[in-house]
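User: Need the bound-state model for beta-D-glucopyranose:
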Amino acid sequence: MKEAQGACAPTAPVSQGTLDKVLQEVDRIAQTFTIDRESLQRITDHFVKELERGLGNEDGDIPMNVTWVMNQPTGYETGQFLTVDFGGTNLRVCNVTLTEEKGGCELTQHKFKLSKHMRKCTADELWGFIADRINDFIQEHNLRPHNSEKLPLAFTFSYPVTQDNIRHGVLQRWTKGWDISGVEGHDVVAQLEQALEQRNIPVHIVALVNDTTGALIASAYRDPEVKVGSILGTGCNAAYMEKCGRIPKIASHNLPADQLVGINTEYGAFDNSHQVLPRCDFDLEIDRASPRPGQQTYEKMVAGLYTGELFRLIIVHLHDTVGFLEGCDLRRLRDVHAMESSVLSRMEEENATPESTMVETRTMLKQEFGIEPTLEELKICCLLAEIVCMRAARLYACGIAAICKKEGVTRGRVGVDGSAFSKNYKFKERAAAALREILEWPAEEEDLITFVPAEDGSGIGAALIAALTVGNH
Ligand code: BGC
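Assistant: Bound-state model below.
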């Protein structure tokens, strides 16, 4: 019988000699992934300086993009808006109606999974695809502009852009594995509008929004204690409101010093100059294999697109060097990004009961990767998942702690969206514990800054920003 690709020889007990070597190497790797309190604090302090630097005129690692979102919603915003969210993994089109009653809204939506091959398609294909999905949505819901005007659209584009105003955004660089030529250095609003016009789709873009800004506005609207909006999904980032007087790079606009404006930090780029983050060989490998080596250093250690990949690289390394999963054919695990971060979470969750025999993980590894580890090996896999995810959560806390320190926020909430945060086993608890270590809250105090699930940023948040922009408030 022909052996299935990636199949494993019948599970045989691992020899003690091999096991010892594997455990020794796992221990070594664990040490390179461990970040103690002192290091967390050192990283955070450097982070604070870099956030400051990004607001100034000289170039630093963190872009600190000015979003031109100048107002906070009051709850009395009204109007009907289309919203489109082009993030890392899905495309979502919504029709949002902000109703007369305070805080009222209605929403209908369609979500499309973006195939991996789209990450390298042409600019025309990308904008054409988005325009077509908008058109399908309009047709299906029979949406018509009032008074023959065009339908207003808020476009959530979750990549770093330089904005002169809210209806404009020049892509600085693709992140999250996207690599479509002809977009970097260009205004994405103009490119999408061109695709809409070519198809006679009666839609015009009233606001370009980052997902973090949407999350901040939507969350602060429901809960004024939310001071930071953050995403931890495929990518990682945060936004907050800053006083214009503290942003030297927009001094020429002569805005009132106390006027608030949304800053999309784009802090996934933190430490691109490699000064503080303790990168190990696996991080270097991830960077090398990415379409933009040298970029998004922090994001590559923290975000969902990369934790599964880090784990995969470690498993393959242990197999090749010390005989871990001896007898298994790791072919299916050799492809870049073969493993999603949700796999790690599922493993860790099942392992939470110490007596678990890991039935689900066993089935999943066999079905998805064709490998059949012994129970001992499965437990090692769980340990590795914990090592990778613990580091991600602890480093994630540094960015949030840095914004809070810089802004003098000692109490408040952080609205977080993204599957790596909401679906990953214990991520929130681990990040909260690290935040406590960094900010040194007294043991008897409850957490002073807490993580809460963000409100719908790219639907309701984007519609609110659109309403504020067109003056429906
Ligand atoms: C992008 C950000 C975005 C974040 C979360 C990063 O890769 O650069 O704009 O907010 O991912 O989606």
